[in-house]
Amino acid sequence: MANSKYAYVRSFELPDPLLPGTFMLFRLDGHSFHRFSDQHEFKKPNDTRALELMDHAAKDVMTEYPDIVLAFGESDEFSFLLRKSTTLYNRRESKIVSTLTSLFTASYVMHWPKYFPDFPLRYPPSFDGRIVLYPTEKHIRDYFAWRQADTHINNLYNTTFWALVQQGGQTTTQAHATLRGTFAKDKHEILFSRFGINYNTLEDRFRKGSVLFREEACSNRLHRLFFKVTYNSQIPPKETNDEQRMTEEPIAADHPIPNEDRPVST
Ligand code: ATP
Ligand code: ATP
Ligand code: MG
Ligand code: MG
Ligand code: MG
Ligand code: MG
């Protein structure tokens, strides 16, 4: 049938190769997880079961694809770094994005009952995926610093927000209003003086996200750790707001980017 009179439609499929010699950064993000987390009664601000399930699915993806050297997760998203030299699926973008996204989703669903034994899925979750190409290691470092700054900013906001609601008795509308225009130091102050919470003692996972990397010397085992945060929350923010502070001190500046020329053991 390959040469049937219908086969010409195949020529409408356009090639979508990704530029060679560039780092591939694949990121996926839960579709409408605001609703999904609501419908599945995630604990606010951070449901550890859900974060661990994300880590598990990410680990499955890394196990299947040895060309992924590093991954970073927060909230409903995960980022995966593929080595520059990867020839995975001849670097065809839609093939890579769709396969990795569906593998992650399948793993998330498959392992759901392990993390939520008393709460069956109400409907199938989905994730979107994309690949961005970066030419240099600096871009990769800045990328991960950017995601981790996002983790920090969101978590500081969410932690303060939910303290105001859960412990402070405010409505969500009131809590948003309370936080409007506040700087990081104001949120630290609200947490500490009103709720006795020292932000810096909260779980690393919540404040910094989770990192998966491949330990090459040790039979390709996957590990999880937290980036060391060099982001200095003690620096007074002057006229900057949280949004602008994201572009300040990079967080993962001292984290080694896996050496491109070193083969990954399998
Ligand atoms: P989109 O489809 O555009 O991504 P979204 O509703 O998924 O929309 P996000 O910006 O991705 O929006 O935010 C994900 C939301 O999911 C968070 O704001 C939070 O409400 C919820 N969420 C995700 N993971 C957790 C978790 N581990 N614990 C509690 N809430 C979570
Ligand atoms: P690729 O990843 O390139 O798609 P593939 O192994 O999935 O590789 P396909 O050309 O998509 O190759 O073919 C799918 C194969 O899966 C079929 O050739 C057949 O062997 C098997 N298969 C799929 N569905 C069925 C089914 N319902 N019953 C029996 N075999 C099936
Ligand atoms: Mg989003
Ligand atoms: Mg989302
Ligand atoms: Mg998200
Ligand atoms: Mg197939």
TrEMBL record:
Catalysed reactions, as listed in the record: a 5'-end ribonucleotide-tRNA(His) + GTP + ATP + H2O = a 5'-end phospho-guanosine-ribonucleotide-tRNA(His) + AMP + 2 diphosphate + H(+)
Protein's name according to its UniProt entry: tRNA(His) guanylyltransferase
GO molecular function, one term: tRNA guanylyltransferase activity
Cofactor note: Binds 2 magnesium ions per subunit.
Bias (Basic and acidic residues): 239-248
Residues binding GTP: D29, G30, H31, S32, F33, H34, S75, D76
Swiss-Prot/TrEMBL cofactor(s): Mg(2+)
The organism of origin for this protein: Agrocybe pediades
Residues at which Mg(2+) 2 binds: D29, D76
